Amino acid sequence: MRVPVVQHRGRRRRALGRRALWTGGEFLVTAGVVLLLLVVHELWWTNREARQGAEHQVRALERQWATPGAGSGDTPSANAGLAGGSSPRRGTSAGGSTTVTGSATVPRRSQAYAVLTIPRLHLRVPIAEGVSKQNVLNKGYVGHYPGSQQPGQAGNFALAGHRNTHGEPFRYLPRLRLKDTVQVETSAATYTYTVDRILPQTSASDSGVIRPIPRSIVKPSYGFSRPGHYVTLTTCTPDFTSRYRMVVWGTLTSARAR
To answer: Is there a domain that residue 208 lies in?
Structure first.
């Protein structure tokens, strides 16, 4: 009489399969939670942290400018000057009214030294020298392109800012319309530019938009053909990509010394 042999291989195989499925499920759930936390960090925490830091920096600049003798100091957190603290130069505009033009001194790299205000966007943020992500843009600041002009100077005062995450100061830049105003405040003066050109999309390498006489080299019908006093605002487009750039240009229409 034969004794039946119990086969355990099938049971083991099924048990291993269930264990593998359980382990895989746990891994997917864990990965999903980690991914969700990363998204929350990028979309919420970086914005919160950067905005608080930017607001603090604006207040620091305002306090320093309100202090008698502001403009002679030189601190990393609040540069006292249009461009290093010297007084603005006065001249006469084509219409005969008095204008204020900037000095030639350049702030230190990553130094916050001015405040950008865009009424339509309810935006008020610091401007810092340079466009470093780590030291400028990721702090929620707007960065000044090195080599472009300073506020109020003849030429092109060119700026860059994040559209998404890290404070996203230029999140709503597409809402700007022609004749909207853009103000730049320094310890020396307040400059008001009026928006008169908008380039919805161009290549990220379109360097023509920040030249002294700004004109797109990708879409030459956008830009200017004569010297002037310009401001340029640039940001990534469309949302959550960095493939293209949006550009807004304005022309200096008034300047008021402090």
So the answer is: yes
Of 144, 162, 166, 211, catalytic: 162
Burial per residue of 13-51, b for 16 or more beta-carbon CB atoms within 10 angstroms, e otherwise: eeeeeeeeeeeeeeeeeeeeeeeeeeeeeeeeebbebbb
- 34 in a domain, yes or no? no
pLDDT, one tens digit for every residue, the chain (258 residues): 565 555 566 677 777 777 777 677 666 666 565 555 455 445 567 899 999 999 999 999 999 999 876 554 443 333 333 333 333 444 433 333 334 444 456 799 999 999 999 999 999 999 999 999 999 999 999 999 999 999 999 999 999 999 999 999 999 999 999 999 999 999 999 999 999 999 999 999 999 999 999 999 999 999 999 999 999 999 999 999 999 999 999 999 999 998
Q: Is 162 a known active-site residue?
A: yes
Identified catalytic residue from 197, 229, 245, 258: 245
Catalytic residue, from 144, 171, 229, 236: name it.
236
pTM of the prediction? 0.75
Residue 106 lies in a domain: yes
Strand partners, 89: 101
Q: Which residue range forms the structural domain that includes residue 247?
A: 49-257
> What CATH code is carried by the domain that includes residue 78?
2.40.260.10
* Assigned domain for 4 exists: no
Asked if 236 is an active-site residue, the reply is: yes
Could you give the dihedral angle defined by the CA atoms of residues 218, 221, 225 and 230, in that order, rounded to the nearest 10 degrees? Answer: -80
